[in-house]
Amino acid sequence: MSLLGLDATRPCWRLLCALLVFACPASVGLWELHNNYLHTLDKQSELAATKAVRLIEAMLHHAEGVNRNIFPLISHPCNTSLLTLRKEVTLTPFVRSASLINHYGVYCNSLFGDVHWEDDVGRYSGGFLRLLSGNPVRANHPMLVVRTESQDGAVLSTIDSEYLKLMLALSAPVSGKAQLHVGNAWLDEQGHLVEGYHRLPTLAVHKAKSEHYPLSVYVGFELPSTWEALWRVRHLTIWMLLGFSLTISLLVWWLLGRPGTMEGELKRALRAREFVPYLQPLIASRSGKLMGAEVLMRWQHPTSGLIRPDLFIPQAEACGVIVPMTQLLMRDVAQQLGQRQERLPDGFHVGINISAVHCRDFSLLTECRAFLGHFVPGQVVLVLELTERELLVADAHTLALFKQLDEMGVKLAIDDFGTGHSSLAYLQQFHVDYLKIDRSFIGRIGTESLSEHIVDNVIDLATRLGLALVAEGVETEMQADYLRGKGVDYLQGYLFGHPASLRSFCDALSKAEVGDKQTLVRVA
Prior knowledge:
Distance between the termini: 35 Å
Helix content: 40-55%
CATH architecture of the largest domain: Alpha-Beta Barrel
CATH class of the largest domain: Alpha Beta
Strand order of the largest sheet: 14-15-17-18-19-20-21-22
Number of domains: 2
CATH topology of the largest domain: TIM Barrel
Radius of gyration: 50 Å
Number of helices: 15
Strand content: 15-25%
CATH superfamily of the largest domain: EAL domain
Low-confidence stretches: 1-5, 519-524
């Protein structure tokens, strides 16, 4: 599976995709929860402020009732009005005291009777309300004074701050702060009164202003961290969100790790350059010296490791990606061997496997020319090994292609000779230079007479046609001695060297002494 041209099946990309899938819903969900929480706080403060204003207005309504009832007592002597004042205060909720005012000031109070107190009307908000820090009874106990004025004087009624605290506390949400603002004074839900500038809460502050009285209520929140507060009230939702995000990310990790179709997987691997060349040495049977190498393809899968060619080459040929895969190998081999060509013996054979699909156009010609262009002329002999998995039709195009390859100096070998139905036909139709005896016959030498007869017949056929012979799969000295005795030109197999990565092969080339290529064989 590819993502924007990247191989999303690689562990690093799978992890990145899974982390992104986890982070996106988790971050969006958390951000939405955070915004919803702030909106909830704002609504709570708005409702709380409105509720507090209504409760305080209800108390003021009672105080206004007291003022209306004692209004006729203005200018009456205090001793005749005192009983009425005390009766009104006793029967009216929330009101603690009542007072009468004439032109000289407050002259009668329901608690103290005859008094001579100053009345500063300018300090009342709207000439109606005033928050006092205390009274003669309790110096540091705030109260709210309600003043109603007439032509003959004025009346006062007071509401104790305990009632105001209660109304603010009942209205304030959990962790919220509520403050009553009258004129230049502020009273909070704890009963603390401050005059002048007062710092408001920092979060979700809402103001509700009374439509009937000169007062306002501010409600807000003072939270050290909104995220910490969100965790306290929404931790279950957050756990569910994180669990959902983790589940989706694990699902993406699993889906990206699932194998796709073989064709899609091969194309992905080709883009990721996972097909790597391995080289197996080719030995001159008489001298035992290194004379070349066959380039074998391996699949370096990011999770499955090294995959043998028989597990993917047939599928690559069937879905048409074998050509770019082979081109990739030829370029890698040419580039790295070309940098070490001074270490190669003259006429070093490089065998590349091709199939019928390579011969459908002249791109093979271009690739072979580019391959040989990396080497000094005569330094390398390029051998194309033709397999029989797909039938190659000897039409005019194919014959012209092989003719031009032959003129370029490119040799043709028939791989796994004797195992397919078209080997003899290829000998008749094309100019073949090498026959490669299949490893299945070599492995039975000394144990099965029929296989030895087949090998002898192949050797006889090659000798008659003037073709060079290569024996594959040589694993024992007995097999090597038998083939040398029969005149086989080149030997290839585990006896002389296992297939090695191109890097290892080149490193062995660099370490081997010039002219001592037998050492290279053992190293590779």
